[in-house]
């Protein structure tokens, strides 16, 4: 049953091995140099993937978005006729000085709140958003960027860009800004609220003005109010 194996195949194999180089060429000697794996594309945080990055922040401020931002200011009581002082409003209507940081001043009126700025950011909200977007001051254009981030986080920005300021966009913004009506027409938090009709009228007027100006830079121009 057992057959004696010949040693000839082993000798042939050894001879063949002797004809093969004992070392492989290094990758640097191969055509084109060393092989490289493609580096993964850098990913923006999930909340900012759809934003268009500009020199002044991650969001482009189109005339339509400028009109929306102005409408939120109108609802929140910080419009001030479009003047830059609207970016310095504390809860209750007083003004703070300087844009180095969120003022974090608590004011007691009907409620007690430390909300501040054109979009009435609470300190905790501002700290979170400014950290995510890398905003180093409370200047007007940074406030605009933070507001657009909050609009996007409420899943309202894409719909707004496609549909304009409709009742669904307002409903999505209502949990962020109590002055904007929810689906039932009242405030999401039971606070004073603007009507859909009033906000729609203001938005259309603001949109016409923004398109005539053809610029979204008004917040930067007004960064240092007289």
Report on the structure:
The protein has helices at 8-18, 63-76, 123-133, 140-153, 157-163, 167-173, 196-213, 218-221; strands at residues 107-108, 112-113. The chain is an all-alpha fold and 226 residues long. It has a single domain, classed as Lysozyme (Orthogonal Bundle), CATH 1.10.530.10. Strands 1-2 form a two-stranded antiparallel sheet. The relative contact order is 0.14. Residues 1-54 and 220-226 have low confidence and may be disordered.
Query: In angstroms, what separates the terminal alpha carbons?
Result: 108 Å
The share of residues in extended strands comes to: under 5%
- Helical proportion? 25-40%
Shape: globular
CATH fold title: Lysozyme
Please give the largest β-sheet.
Answer: 2 strands, antiparallel
Keywords:
single chain; 226 residues; mainly alpha; Lysozyme; two-stranded antiparallel ribbon; 38% helix; globular
Question: Would you kindly provide a brief summary of this structure?
Answer:
The protein has 226 residues and is mainly α.
Please specify the SSE layout and strand pairing.
Layout: H1 8-18, H2 63-76, E1 107-108, E2 112-113, H3 123-133, H4 140-153, H5 157-163, H6 167-173, H7 196-213, H8 218-221
Antiparallel strand pairs: 1-2
Helix pairs in contact: 2-7, 3-4
């Amino acid at each position: 049953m057992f057959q004696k194996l010949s040693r000839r195949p082993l000798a042939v194999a050894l001879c063949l091995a002797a004809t093969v180089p004992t070392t492989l060429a290094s990758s640097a000697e191969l055509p084109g140099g060393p092989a490289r794996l493609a580096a993964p594309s850098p990913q923006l945080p999930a909340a900012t993937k759809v934003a268009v990055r500009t020199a002044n922040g991650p969001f482009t401020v189109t005339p339509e978005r400028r009109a929306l931002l102005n409408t939120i200011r109108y609802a929140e009581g910080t419009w001030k006729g479009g003047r830059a002082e609207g970016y310095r409003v504390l809860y209750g209507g007083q003004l703070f000085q300087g844009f180095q940081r969120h003022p974090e001043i608590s004011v007691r009126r009907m409620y007690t709140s430390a909300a501040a700025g054109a979009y009435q950011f609470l300190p905790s909200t501002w700290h979170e958003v400014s950290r995510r977007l890398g905003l180093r001051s409370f200047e007007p254009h940074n406030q605009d960027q933070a507001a657009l981030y909050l609009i996007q986080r409420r899943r309202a920005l894409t719909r707004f860009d496609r549909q304009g300021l409709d009742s669904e966009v307002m409903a999505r913004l209502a949990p962020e800004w109590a002055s904007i009506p929810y689906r039932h027409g009242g405030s999401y938090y039971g606070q004073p609220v603007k009507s859909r009709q009033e906000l729609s009228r203001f938005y259309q007027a603001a949109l016409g003005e923004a398109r005539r100006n053809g610029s979204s830079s008004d917040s930067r121009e007004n960064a240092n109010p007289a």
